Amino acid sequence: CAWPNDAEGLASILSTWRAWVQSSAVSGRLSFSLPSVGLLTAMGELSSAVAKGGVPATELAVRIPIVDSDRTEALIPPLTALRASGMDVWLEGWRPGNAPLETLTQLPLDGLVFDPSLVAAVTQEPAETSLRFGRVSLALGGALGLRVLADGVCLADQHARMALLGCGLMQGNWFCPAESAAEKGQSSRTVIF
Hints:
Helix content: 40-55%
């Protein structure tokens, strides 16, 4: 889910998540996309909220944006602390060329989230270039010991091609289509964030 505007919003999201997990037989992780502006502050707020109780860190994941190389070093201690608490840390918006290999090897990460543009290219480009980039990206993630998630899978063809490449973690409208506000009011489907 998107990062809330204040501590009260964060507490509300965490308590709603906890109630949902306790009332169902489903387990999983609540994933936050942290903002690039104020990234260190957001990590501190999340650590504080987890320390206050309610949701174990092992049920949470954070997604950090691609950062400039000069900011990488400052992120290592707080990300290491989040991982040590049991939280997953993912680098969001990854595609070939937008994050130096040095950044991928320095940051304490659990996974990479493919940028939706890479997933879209898998079916939009007539050449097989995007498939090669997909294969290379998955191989790179594996070589670094990272899980790889394809974000933005909206079409059956995208799902099939990503699976063909060996990508087993995917998300997007193909799996859970967005609902309009009117549909949400008339639907019995529960949508969490």
